[in-house]
Amino acid sequence: MKNKETSILETEDCKLAHVDYETKRCQSMQEHAGNVARFSRDVCELPELSSIVELAGILHDAGKLGTVNQDDFKNILELGDKVHKHGLDHSTAGGRIVLELLKGEPVSEFISTLIYFHHGMEDCINLENGQSLQERRLKKEIEYKHIKEEFFELYDRKMLEKAGEKAVQSYQEILKKVNGFVKKYDSSGKKYGSRYFYLGMYLRTALSLLIDGDWTDTACFFQNIPLSKRMSQEETQKIWEECIQNFEQYLKNEIPNNPDNGNQLNVFRQEISDSCRKAAETDQQLYRLTVPTGAGKTLSSLRFALYHAKKEQKHRIIYIAPFNSILEQNAEEIRKATGLPAAVLEHHCNVICEEGEEEKYRNLTETWDSPIIVTTAVQILNTLFSDQKNCIRRMHNLCNSIIIFDEVQAFPVRCTELFNLSVNFLSQFCGTTAVLCSATQPTLASLEENNICKCLEMSGESEKYTKAFKRVEIIDETKNERYPRGMETEDLKEFVLEKTEEYHSTLVILNTTKCAFEVFQNLEDCCTEEYEIFHLSNNMCPQHKLDTLAEIKNALRKRDKKIICVSTQVVEAGVNFSFGCVVRSKAGLDNVIQAAGRCNRHKELGKMGAVYIVQMVHDAERLERLREIRDAQAALQKILDDFKYDNKRFNYSLDSEIAIKFYYSVYRSQLRKLETKFPVEVCGVTVTLTDLLGKNQIGQNQYCRKHKEKVRTKLPQAFQTAGSEFEVISDTYKLSVVVPYGIEPKLLLEELSQVRTETEKKKILRKLQRYTVGISESRRNKLGNAVYENSEGILVLCDGYYDKKVGVVDEPKMDFCNI
What we know:
Strand content: 5-15%
Largest sheet: 7 strands, parallel
Number of helices: 31
Structural class: alpha/beta
Distance between the termini: 54 Å
Number of strands: 23
C-alpha cells in the first residue's frame, strides 16, 4: 500500500503524523499508525506478540494529536524544517490511553511501557529516587483530555477494546510460557534465569518490532515509495535450495583442490561435515560443534545451517565471529560456498560499500533483513543488550533464525550469564536454533543461576577427532632452568631464533602490544637477510593487518626464507596460516590450544610441530590491569603443575578433552563472585547487568524506601542504565584515530573536506574505518601534538608516527614514513 498523500489545502481537518516541506505532502495519523500496526504484526515471528504490537502500533504516536504537535507540523509546512520543535512528547498519551482502555489488566503495563520506550529506553524504576516509570508518565503534564478525545474521534472504542481482549490473551500466553520454562527447569536442580529477565526480553523484541515498523513507514513516506515488504517464506526457501546446491558443488570441487587446506585431514573434515549434515535433520534448539582447530568448523556449521533452515523454514542464518580478522575471510568463503553473494550481508565497521549503496547498506545493518548475515560478537551482543535504538530495531529478526556462534570461547567472561540467558530466550521462546562452535568449548558445569540449556553435540565424541588432528606437542617452558624468573624480551628473542633454526618458521604470540613490539624490534635489529620478520597487533589499522596477513601467507607458501611473526592474540582464532613452531606467552589453555591451531595446521611438516608455553618476567608484559589474563594464567599453571606430576590423568596431552574440562573448572572456581554477571558501578554501588535486566533489586529497594511498600510490577528492570553501561569491549581504546597508512587515508580526508551531503560523508567515513586505530586517552596525551583534530572533527595521526611494519609508534621515525 502506498503512503496516503494529502495536499496542504486538505490539512485543516486531517490529523498529521508526518509532513514534507519540500513536496508539501502530508501523512495522516491514521495512515501512519495503521501502517506501523500492520507492518509490526506481519513481520512478527512470535504469535503471542502479534496482537500486542498491533495495538501498540495504533497507539504509539497518539501524542501527536495534541495542539502543540499539530501546530508544529503546520509551521513546518509553511516555514520549513528549521522551525521544527524538537523533543516534543508524543509517546506519553498513548501509554496512558492503553492503561485506561485495558482497565488494570497486566498487559496494559507491558504495552504502555512499549509505547513510552519507542523513542528511547528508560528505567522502569529510577535507581536514585525509586520513582517508577508509570508514576512519572502519569504525573507528566500533557494535553491528555484533548488528545484522548481526538484519538477516539479517529478510532472506535469498541474496536480497540476487542483488540485489547486479544492482547490480554496473548500476554497470558507469554506469562504461561515464561513461568512454565522457569518452573520446569528450576525443578531439575539447575537454574536457567528469572521470569523478570525473559519478560524483559519479550518487551525488547516487541519494542524492536514497533521501532522497525515506525522507522520503515516513516522512511517510505519521506522517500514517497510504497510501504516495503520483507522477504516471504517462499522466497527464502528458494534461496536455501539454491544455496544448498551451490554449497554441495563447492565442497566437491573447491575444497579438495585448495592447497591451503592440505589433504591429509580432508577425510576427517568430510566426516565432521557429514555429521553436521545429519544433525540438520533433528529438531533440537541448541547444538554444540566441538572439533579441533583446522577441522572446518565454519563450513561444517554452515552446511548444518542451510539444511536445517530449509527443513525448519527458518528466515535467516546469522554467523557470528569474535574478531574482524577472521570475519572478513570467513565472509568471503561463505559467499563463495553459497554461490549467492547478494544474499550475504557482511556487517562490521570495515565494510566498504559500492557506489550509491551506502544508504541501502545502512538500512540493512539496522534491520538484518537478509537471508545470511555475517557479523561480529559485538554486533549481536549490542542487538541483545544495548540501549541504542538502531541496535534494538533488528532484535526481532533473531527470531526463527539459525545463529552460529563461532569461537564461542572468545566471548568476554563478564558476558557469560547474559549470553546464556539470551541464548535460552532465543532458543526456548523465539523458535531460533543456536550452534556453539569451538575447539575449546567452555564448560557447561552448573552456575549458581543463569545456566544455558542442554546442547546436542553435533560431531559426536570429540576425543576421536582430537587424536586425528593431533599435529603438535605442547611443551611447558614456563619453569625453564635457564630462566628461573621468567624470560626477558632479550631471552625470548634468543629462544625464538633457536627454534626458528630448527623449524624454519615461528609464530610468537604475546599478551600485550608493548611486549610484542619490543620482541619484534629485538628480532629485527639482529636478524640478517635470510629472515623475514613480521608483526601483527592492534597498533595497526585493519587494512595494514589484512595486508600483513596476506604477506605472511605468501612468505609461508614460498618458504625461501626463515619466517618469524611476532603478534598479539589477534591471530589466535580462525586465521588460516601454518607455522612450524609456535611460542605462546602464558595465558589460558584455550589460548594455547587456539595458538596451536596455527602450527603444522595440515600436518604438512611430516612430523609433530611444537608449541612452547613461556613465562615472561613481570616487567615485560605488565598485566596488573588485565585481570582476565592473570586469572587464565593461574588456571593454566595449575594444570601444568598437575600434568607434570601425573600426565596419564590427562591422556598424556595438554590439549585432550579431559585437560580442557579440568582447565575450565579451575578457571571458573577462582572467578570473583560477580565476574560472570557483568558487574558495573551505578550510583556508587556495584551491581550487575544480569540483575538490572532482571529483578533490579537496587531499584526495588529504592521504590520500597520511597513508597513504604513493595513494588507491584512484572517490569522493574533498569533497561536504560543497563543498556548504556553495556559494552562488549572495554572503553580503554575508545579514541579512533585515522593513521597515515599509504596514500589512501590522506586522499579520503581531503575528499571528506569537500563533500556536502550526509550520504557522501558517511560513505567516506566508512572507508576511513580501514585506516583507523583505537588508542587510549592516556596514549593520546603521550603522543601530544602528533594527534590533531582536523576541520571535520576527526582525530588524525601525524606523518612519522605510523611505522609501516608495526603501526602507531610513540616516537617519530621519519625514515619509516610512507606518505
